[in-house]
Each structure stands twice: as structure tokens, then as C-alpha cells.
Amino acid sequence: MPIKKFVPPRGRICQGFEFPKTAQYERLKVIGISVPEWAEIGPDTRLDPGEWGPYVVVKPDLGRKGAEIRIKRTERVRYKPEADYPEDHPARKAPMFAQKFVYTGRWPSNYRIVTLFGKTLMCWLCEADHGLPPLEERYAFGGGGVTIVSNKKTSHYSLASDQDVMALAEKTHAAFPDQPLLGTDVIRDAETGELFVLETVEVDLTDQALLLDVQLRFRALFDPLVFEAGWWVDDLRVEDVWTFGTCRSGCDGAGPSPRLLDVELCGTPGMPTVVLLDGSSSLPGVNGWPSELPLIFTHDGPGHFDGARFAAGEMVELTFPPGTPAGIYPVTLTARDSIGCTNQITTTVSLFSGLPPAERPGDSLRVSRLHDEITFRWMPTGEPLAVHVHDVASTVTLIAPRELTTEPSVTWFDEELPRLTFVRLQAIDSCGVSVP
Length: 436
Known about the structure:
436 residues, mainly beta, 6-stranded mixed beta sheet, 3 helices, elongated
């Protein structure tokens, strides 16, 4: 189904869309895929049995699960006004059409192939229950009671590995390049071996459009061990989002200029950490800002924008959930102008843990003298330390703090130090807090 509420920030949208069957056939014809000949049933429709055969299949242009599919004598096919159908009939939503009948054997059968961006994930064969009356010959419908629908509750399902069938389904997916997941129904003529595509079925992800992660499950009806619960084919993670419209990078230097500064902040243990990202100093370029979505922030990491991977506006809040490890996380700001020129800048959010060092370095401080040298030693903590020396009498710093060091000692000459000296060690934790 088309996206209704989700507005992605960039790229191409890949989504499901329910095409009417005849619209599917038109697309398939363009790329050379064989489909049984069809014709919409209108007020003036008259089908020639010499061209169509003695029987044709009549079905709704929008329909599911074999609903309202009938076999009918060709010369009896007539138009029926929409108002003459029951309220819940598919013909209330789209026209009915006639299609040439393809004989798949004594019992109707079809292949269902699931493809992801044109690559086969699974293929199975569905055949109607053999307890039903068989169709002994191509047009032997005279006795009545013969079904032409293969997918019923009592049907038989089995895995299939017919290479020509899967190859046809993969080629079929090319007619719907923006639909990521597609189910294609293929039938084989039992007498000629020719393959035909009957229809494609999309997977609807509309309800999951605003979620960070989406999980798909395929149900294998032919496996009695998992008939009720189903089974996992794969876990799919949305690693990127795709958008609408034309995006031209840079536009020869005349495009917009996104501006966003790096941010450093400390986390609070057990609490979410919120950082304000400010892109208000960005410039539109010579073409000006567009009427919508001029600035779009994106982040692919542990943080989120109110539950989404993107946010639009000059200033937005990026939230890191409790327990997010300290680290440097990228944020991308995309600026768009009124004619579709885009430029991006990627900056970082440096998230510090906010936890002090495990040990207090000053507790282990020791001093020793050897000739004219005075050495201060302490137990190493692995943390960078600053060493301060103060005159006790004046309480002012006589010697500037040594550079931060991870060494467990520091030495001065005797003349550098006053007779009464106060020495202080400080560890600087990840949030810049001094711990004596």
C-alpha cells in the first residue's frame, strides 16, 4: 500500500501498491512477460468463441484469494452494471474482465514465488484437492461442478524448485521496481508447457512505516508442523530510508549550505539523553528554500527523533535511550532548495558516560626525595591525571599544572618547590569533571 503518513527525508521510495490486475498485465506486456489474453467487460462486449475458446474465466479487476472467479461460456459473457452486484462484491470497486482459460491439468494448480527486489526467497506449488471433480480435458466443463481455483483450504502445497518458474518471477519483478517484496502467481499449461503470469501480490508495510525496525514473517501453509504459528524466513532491518522527488547534489555550487556544529554532552545514568541540534544558520543558496522540508536531519544509530530516523525543521531534538554507551555518533543534515538541489553535512554527537573514575588517585599519593629531586608517585588508574602544586602559605599555584599524563609519577627539582607544598592530583572523567 502507498505510504500515507510517513514522509521520508531523501532517496527513492520502495513500497507496496495494489495495482488492478489489468494494470499489472499492461506493465508485464511492456517487458515481454506472457499473460493470458484479457478484455474488460463493458456494455458492448461480445467475445468470439473462435478467438477466445468455448469457455473463458471471468474475474474482478480488484480481488483476492480467488473470490468471484468463475468459468463461463464465451458467448454468454455480458456486462452487468455495478449497482446490480451485492454491496460486498469486488465489482463494486473495479470492473469485471474476461480472460482466456489456461488448462493446468486435471486439477487447477499455480506456483507462488516470493521475490525481494527481484531475487527469489521461496517458491511453492499449490494444487486443488484431488477429492474434487477433475477436469479431464481442456474445455470439459459440460458436467458442471469443476473448480478452476487452486488455492482453497483443502488444497495441497509443496515446495517447488522449477528454475524456469523462478526465473520468470524474477523477470516479472522488473515491471514493479519500486515494490520491494512481491508475490507472483505463475501457471503452466499442462499440454504445451507454456508459462503465464496471473498476477502479483504486494506486501503492505503501511502500519510499520514509523517504526525503527520492521520484522516480516512468511507463513508456510504446506508445512503441517507450523501451520498455525508460521515460520521466519528472515529478519529484515531498515538500514536506510528512501524519499520522493528529484534530488540533485550540489547543483554546480549554487545549492544550499547546511550548517551544523559538533555537539558534546554527558549522559545521566538510567535516564534518556536529549541533545538539541541547531541547523538554523544554514543558507538556502540562490534559489531559496522549498515550500516544505528544507532541512532534514537523519541519524542511523542508537538515538531517534521522536521514534523516527529523521526529523524536519531548523532545530530538532535527538534522544538517546538510557544505557546508550559512550561514543561518537554521526548526524547528517540535508538542505534542499526550491529546485531540488541538495547538499549534506555530517557532524557528530560525542556522548560521554557521565560516570567518574572507579578510583580516587589522590588516595594513593606518596612522596620521596633523592638528592635534589622530589618525586610524587601514585597507583596508576589508567585515567589521564593533572598534577597541581600550591604554596601552603599563599595558597596560590606556584607551578602550572603538568600536562595530563597517565604515568604513575612526576618529579621536580628541589629548588622548584617551596618548603611547604600542597600537591593535588586530579583525574578528569569523560564529562570533564575533576575528581581529586
